[in-house]
Write a sequence for this structure.
DNA sequence: ATAATACTTTACAATAATTCCAACTTATGC
DNA sequence: GCATAAGTTGGAATTATTGTAAAGTATTAT
């Protein structure tokens, strides 16, 4: 059974039952920079936690997302990816291998007037697409 | 049978068979600013084109995307959305009703060194999220 | 500590989006 | 016109995700 590194409720109104399954998922996610999909999370966690069910993974991901402790990325056209780093940052995705990497540089993107005037903007996310170093190299070789 | 507004092959290497189904889909898409999903496209086109099949819609969308005549948006967590405007621009999506609007303002986003150094960047897309005018108003009223 | 309760987990069924397939049809180049 | 490569079709298959109802367990108040 995984040890608790951070409390599952980091802020008021965020209380969640502290079940071993959740702790295992949370533990896997904590500090994870790979932007895993639900399936990857399930595969990894269920290795150590035999009876883990897929529904529990989805439930937990949804709960954590709802409480703002996890960010759901829509950058991969095939599946949702999850990012435990909820601080504002951006991403690069490799068009070949779908690897996602964080972009922590502070990008100043002004919200255009046309939008700011009548919409309420709550988030700004920059997606860079292209080839990651290894796919770039592989392409060059052929 | 729909009329052809633009040639289906706009550039070399883009030749596609000019079938009535494709023309119908292309006609629906041409100038469309609603960022429709495959299902919306199917629903609309099959109204006038009885025998239209879902597979044809997906085939056509994939072909057009592959030839750079259509852009596949991954901004909606639930489904792919399609944008016939392939000129570089950005988007705003309403978190409530999932409406997507174009952002044609030119946003200057410098590619961060950390990425530019070893990756190959082919695209930069800014996603704004929040509430569209009507959802914003609706929220205020309650 | 314990019991009551409300929330969780589980296995599996159900959806929903998208892709695959194999037989049939058709646009296009000669 | 004909041959043929490419496209269409309906339905089955696949994949991601959600719903469900029964059984289990963390938490809270005792």
């Amino acid at each position: 059974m995984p040890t608790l590194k951070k409390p599952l409720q980091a802020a008021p109104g965020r209380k969640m039952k502290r079940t071993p399954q959740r702790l295992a998922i949370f533990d896997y996610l904590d500090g994870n920079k790979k932007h895993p999909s639900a399936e990857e999370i399930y595969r990894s966690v269920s290795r150590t936690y035999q009876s883990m069910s897929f529904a529990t993974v989805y439930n937990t991901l949804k709960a954590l997302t709802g409480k703002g402790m996890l960010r759901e990325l829509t950058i991969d056209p095939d599946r949702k990816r999850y990012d435990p780093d909820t601080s504002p940052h951006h991403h690069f995705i490799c068009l070949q291998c779908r690897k996602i990497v964080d972009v922590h540089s502070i990008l100043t993107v002004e919200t255009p007037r046309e939008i700011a005037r009548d919409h309420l903007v709550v988030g700004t996310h920059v997606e860079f697409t292209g080839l990651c170093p290894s796919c770039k190299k592989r392409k060059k070789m052929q």
